[in-house]
Amino acid sequence: EGAVRYTRQVPYNDLAAAFFAVLAAAAFDGWRRTNAPASLRMAAVFAGAGVSVRYTAGLMLLAMLAFLWLRRPWGAWRGRLAASATLAGIVALTLSPWLARNLVFTGNPAAPAAQPLFHAPGTEYFSPVALAQSVAFARSVGFGRGLDDLVLLPVNITLRARIGDYSGFGFRVGVLYVVGAIAFLCCARRDSPGATALALAGLSTLFW
Questions:
Q1: How far is the C-alpha of 32 from the C-alpha of 202, rounded, in Å?
Q2: CA 91 to CA 61: how far, in whole Å?
Q3: Which of 78, 79, 204, 206 is deepest in the core (most CB within 10 A)?
Q4: CB of 91 within 8 A of CB of 51?
Q5: pLDDT tens per residue, the chain (208 residues)?
Q6: pTM of the predicted model as reported, rounded to 2 decimal places
Q7: Residue 64: in which H helix or E strand, if any?
Q8: What angle do CA 93, 94, 97 make, to 5 degrees?
C-alpha cells in the first residue's frame, strides 16, 4: 500500500508506456499468427504511441524488429524488409506530431537528446549541466551492472528495494511493468502463444 501511495505522488509515465507496449505486443502477435497487414500496422501505431510517451519505449520497436528478423524461414528477406519498413514508417508517422512540437518549442525535434547537433554551445534549450546531473543520477540508481547483479536482480528487486532508497531501485522499475503486463496478456488470452510474449518481453528487457 505504501508503494502504491508513493507512486501516485510522482510523475511516472512507466505505466502509460507499458500500456502501449502491451497493445503493440498483442497486435504484433496477431500479425505473427494471421499475417494480417492491419495487425502489423496497428502494432506500429501502438509502438509509436509508446515512444511518444518516452523515448526508451522505442525498445519495443527494436524488440519487434529483432523478433521479425529472427523468425523462420530465414530466406524470406523481402517480406521481412517490407514488414520492417512498415513498422518503422508508421512509428515515425505516429511520433511526428511530438517531434514537430519539440522542434517548434526548442529548435530540436529530439529534445532533450542530441542537443549538440541543433544548438551551439551556450545556446542550449536545456542546461547541459542539469542534463549531465540527471544522467549521472540515473546511472547511480540500481544494485549494480555486473553479471552477478543481473542474476540476483529478481531477489534484489523483491527483497531489497525500498521506497526512496536510490542505492537500489527505489521502486523505479518501469521495465518490469512492461514485462509483467505482457506476461499477464499471455496468461489472460489462451489463444495467444506464450512463446511470442516471452520473446518480446525478454528482448525488451535485454535492450533496456
A1: 17
A2: 8
A3: 204
A4: yes
A5: 455 565 556 656 777 787 888 889 889 988 988 889 999 999 999 999 999 988 888 888 988 898 888 876 666 788 889 999 999 999 999 999 999 998 998 888 988 888 888 888 888 888 888 888 888 877 777 677 778 877 777 777 667 766 666 666 555 556 566 666 666 666 655 555 666 666 666 666 555 5
A6: 0.70
A7: helix 59-69
A8: 90
175 in Cβ contact with 182 (< 8 Å):
no
Cell of 45: 501505431
C-alpha cell at 130: 542539469
Lookup: cell for 5: 501511495
User: Taking the mean position of all CA atoms in its chain, how far away is CA 2?
Assistant: 26
Q: Quick one: cell of 30?
A: 496477431
Nearest one of 155, 163, 141, 157 to 3, comparing CA atoms: 163
Please give the grid coordinates belonging to residue 193: 502463444
What is the number of other CB atoms lying within 10 angstroms of the CB of residue 98? 16
Q: What is the DSSP string of 68-131?
A: HHTSSPTT-HHHHHHHHHHHHHHHHHHHHHHHHHHHHHHS-TTTTTTHHHHS-TT--SS-HHHH
CA distance 50 to 138: 21
How many Å is the Cα radius of gyration of the chain?
Answer: 19
